[in-house]
Amino acid sequence: MNRDVLSVISSASKSFSKGQRKISAYILENYDKAAFMTASKLGDTVGVSESTVVRFAADLGYDGYPAMRKALQEMIKYRLTTVQRIAVSKELTNGGDVLTSVLSMDVDRIRATLDEIDRDAFQKAVDAIVNSKNIYIMGFRSSAALASFMGFYLNLLFPNVKIVNECSNGEVFEQILRIREGDLMIAISFPRYSKRAVRAICFAKDKGAEIIGITDAESSLIARYTNINLYAKSEMLSLVDSIVAPMSLINALIVASANQAHRDLVAEFEELESIWSEYDVYEKAEN
Asked: Residue 229, SS3?
């Protein structure tokens, strides 16, 4: 079911029973809270039975209540403000052990990413990284940390790696002004998506560059403009987004690219180690 779940509820409202109208009214007004409620809790909140909530989801065409709740959660990734995220954070952790809840959810996201990743697309991305003339890595807002991390390591592996820094619109285009066919842009973006990133991707695509998108789902705003898409699970954690699965995916891309590189990386890193030692870059471990 591709339609917005709130639109589905609104369009079916005329056929609802009295209990279902209570459920629909609550969801339409409090979708941010309902998205993280169990069927039992939602029923208690609106004053109907758990079975009524389950039937409500089925009548809307969802394969059970969990499917409807997942649709709500997917929808709110693009709608919730930071203030709303804070308000629902207790629902995410059930008011309990935050440490266990957050780490457990991150483990689940990495597992789900591994299960669903398109391995052919992953290999195409590695090939593009290894064979491109110039590599531009772009990630704005919360994705900037991912872009910086990826850029740091790819810069050790390949020449002509550039991190596109977030600044004014004009300055972003100045950084990618010379992008051309044969070049690669790696665009990293997760909800809420940056408009500036979308504009930069379109500019690079018009210039003939290949675009790898690292994002959360096929419905991502950047996925429609990219040549290769890699999806990693990134869900809301209160006021922050989990970027653990995207970081793990980026680690895999870096390692695979290093393994496939066409140069003698051992010799290059031996030279780097010599430079680091000469200029006292790292603290030396004591014997």
From this structure: strand
- With cut-offs at 50, 70 and 90, classify the pLDDT of residue 96: low
Measured between alpha carbons, how far is residue 230 from residues 28, 74, 121, 237, 281 in Å? 33, 18, 7, 22, 35
Q: Please, where are the H alpha helices in the chain?
A: 5-11, 18-29, 31-34, 39-46, 50-59, 65-76, 82-93, 98-116, 119-131, 144-157, 169-175, 195-206, 244-260, 265-278
Burial zone of 95 (CB within 10 Å; 0-12 exposed, 13-18 middle, 19+ buried): exposed
- The three-state secondary structure class of 233 is coil
Domains of the chain (ranges; CATH) run 5-76 (1.10.10.10), 110-262 (3.40.50.10490)
Nearest to 147 by CA among 243, 269, 224: 243
Supply φ then ψ for residue 146, to 5 degrees: -65, -45
Fill in the amino acid letter for 156: L
pLDDT classification of 172: cutoffs 50, 70, 90: very high
Sheet holding 210-215, edge to edge: 161-164, 135-139, 184-188, 210-215, 228-231
Amino acid identity, position 35:
A
Residues forming beta bridges with residue 162, ordered by sequence position: 136
Give the amino acid at 66. Answer: P
Query: Considering the entire predicted model, what is its pTM?
Result: 0.73
Query: Residue 146: CB partners within 8 Å, gap ≥ 6?
Result: 139, 188, 214, 243, 246, 247, 250
Q: Of 73-82, 130-139, 153-162, 267-276, give the lowest mean pLDDT range.
A: 73-82
Nearest-angstrom CA–CA distance, 111 and 115? 6
